[in-house]
# Entry
Amino acid sequence: MLDALVTHRLAVYAGGLLLAALPTLLDRGFDVVLAGPLRTVLVALALGTMLLTYAGERRARGTTDPRDATPDYALGTRVAAVGAVAGVALGGYLAATADLLVGVLFVGGGVLFARLAVGGGRGR
# Structure
C-alpha cells in the first residue's frame, strides 16, 4: 500500500490538501457547516495519508535504485523551494479563510519563488 501512495504521491498530496480545505470551502461556498468532530476527522485523515506518503518517499530514497536518487541542490535553490511551498500554502489558506486578494498575492509570490528555484536565479 505504501508503494501505491508513493507512486501516486502528487494526487495524494493534492487530494489531501483539497480534503483538508473541504470544510472551509463548503462553509464559504455553499453555506454547509460540518460538525467540529467531522472536520477534525477529515483533516486528520488527509494529514495522516500525506504523512504516510512522505514516510514512503523517505524510505524509497534509502534504496540503491538510481531512479530513486535525489540530486544535491544548492542552498539557494532549497530556500527558494521552501519559500515557494510556503507562499502557495499560506496564500491558499488566506484566500480560503481570510482575504482573497492577499491570498492571491501570496500565491503569486510563491510562484515567483518556484521560478527562482527551478531556474536557479538566472535570467531567461
In short: Residues 71-124 form one domain. The chain has two domains: 1-70, 71-124. The CA atoms of residues 97 and 123 lie 35 Å apart.
